[in-house]
Amino acid sequence: MIRKRSRLASLLVLVLTLAPGCARLLAPPRQPIAEDARQALALVAQRWSEFSDIRTLADLDVERDRDRQRLRSVLLAKAPDSVRFEALSPMGQPFLIATMHDGTLVAYNAATNEAMVGPATADTTAKLLSLPFEPHDLVGVLAGRPAPLPDVRVAEVMPADADGPSLVVVNNVHQQRIWMDFVTGIVRQIEITGGLYEVRVTYDRGPQGDLQGFRFSAPRARIGGHVAYRDPIVDGGVDSDRFQMTPPETAKIQRLR
């Protein structure tokens, strides 16, 4: 069934809804990195450094167990770590806004005049949005260009499977497996494991590799869905002011820690 747009947390989960699973990753010892893996890491880093911003209308279709939510929204993301999400009413007006910027997460529901404010960390985004990502990781997912992991301990190019060749990267918290074109650096699919979650994102791309949306699944959390971009504009310039938001003085504010 389609859930009513009534609860702040329920709506915010539609930003990406990559729900926490139960994966835990123990930090491995550092291992020598082969030349092919070094080149792949450099390509991932180059693609990330070339990205500036993205803005798009997005149709979200998310299913958790037997619950299904559909919503049209506006998504904006700007490197390295700014995100804005606007849920739109049938008339096209934003009724719910969430931002992550300068280390702060703010969410405001105009329908109920309620807001949540806290630090933009993996812990608070997991509590509020079911998005256990640091802001720069979320920007990378939305942009189709994974943010490079810091403190890499293991990196290895894996032989092609049914989805093609991939790069596995492990640091002290996360593991990324990135299915990509090792010449262009275009990412087709990414699997992220570690901390609170395990999720796979598969990108929809046009003939020239242009990003058109993505599908995601988190089997342990029994959740999955599709985010379809509509006329996305990449590197068109998004002013940083778009990611700053202050709830009205009359709003009931809950502080997150």
Can you walk through the features of this model?
By secondary structure, this protein is mainly beta. The chain contains 4 helices and 14 strands. It has helices at residues 8-12, 35-50, 122-129, 135-143, and strands at 53-64, 67-78, 82-88, 94-101, 104-109, 114-119, 154-161, 164-170, 175-180, 187-194, 197-205, 211-218, 223-234, 252-255. A 14-stranded mixed β-sheet has the order 7-8-9-10-11-12-13-1-2-3-4-5-6-14. A hairpin with a 2-residue loop joins strand 10 (187-194) and strand 11 (197-205). The longest helix has 16 residues, at 35-50. The radius of gyration is 18 Å and the shape is globular. The chain starts with 7 loop residues before the first helix and ends with a strand.
Number of helices: 4
What best-fitting shape do the alpha-carbon axes yield? globular
Major sheet, described briefly?
14 strands, mixed
Residue-averaged pLDDT = 85
Assembly classification? single chain
Roughly how much helix do the residues carry, as a percent range?
A: 10-25%
Helix/strand structural class: mainly beta
Our measurement of the CA-to-CA distance between the termini, rounded to an integer number of angstroms, reads: 33 Å
The number of strands is: 14
Strand order of the largest sheet: 7-8-9-10-11-12-13-1-2-3-4-5-6-14
| CA-based gyration radius | 18 Å
Residue stretches low in confidence (pLDDT < 50, at least 5 long) are 1-24
